[in-house]
Design a protein that fits this description.
Blueprint: E1 2-5, H1 10-23, E2 33-39, H2 41-54, E3 60-67, E4 75-83, E5 86-96, H3 103-107, E6 117-120, E7 140-143, H4 151-160, E8 166-168, H5 169-172, H6 175-185, E9 192-199, H7 204-217, E10 221-225, E11 231-238, E12 241-246, E13 252-256, E14 263-266, H8 272-280, H9 287-297, H10 305-311
Helix pairs in contact: 2-8, 4-9, 7-9
Amino acid sequence: MRKVLTDTSTSDVRTELMRSSQQLGGLTTGVVLNLIIMTDESAQYDAVRAASQAGREHPCRVLGVIARDTHSVPRLNAEITVGEDAPGQTVVLRMYGELSEHADSVVAPLLVSDTPVVVWWPTAAPAAPATDPLGVLAQRRITDAAACERPLATLTRLAASYRPGDTDLAWARTTGWRSLLAASLDRPHGEILAAEVSAEDGNPSAELIAAWLVGRLGVPVRRVISAGPGVTAVTIATADGDIAIIRPDGRNAILVRPGEPDRHVGLHRRDTAELMAEELRRLDPDEVYGEVLALLAAGAGTGQPEALAAASGEE
């Protein structure tokens, strides 16, 4: 069911949400969180679709916020969707004029009470998510440095402003790599001497993996530029030979260990809906991500050998 309200008010939107919920059997009773999406017109369709797909695993009330012409007369338009195509309820709010500068005041009354709040910026990330007016409402704040115009500069800025509860989809993209690397290093191996991360130029996930390796292994980590897609290889040099995970096609990887036959493992590049579903599984602070960002802020993972050496304790 879809309902469009033009030149409306927060009170009218809330009333319509309650009415639609009652008509469809009390949809909010199964809602486990509120998901606020701060986006623009160009990204809103894909972002809301990804949130709806993730909502099949985590039923939520999705509130898409789009700030339109800030110089026009203040007004609010709302598009409400409920039913099979939108697990929970989805509301796209278009704010005009000065109203767009007070999105938090519009959104707050529409949140399902006593339910966790997550804010997601699928494109441009605020300088400090935790102090952003919408970020203040949330227990969890999700950005995507890879979707920003300058990914590495954005990641550096997010590292400087990090607060518990912040996370980034660039970090979620490293989950498969980190799991495979951790499993590989759980087995006997020679002394670890150094590491190398190969990826496209400006890939924030590669920088996070590099910083994570610096923190976990305490050795220099070198960044190598490859043709992609995304991260293409991580190599750990040991006294017995190289341990490597190589993914040339973005789908399947080859695990290489000294003295063993090469193994083929699945390591596909996940879409946004899968990444969001992972992030919504946890609402507590990601302490490992915080530690990695602290290393990144100190210079680890920047691809500068002297900075990496300093972060790992090397002279």
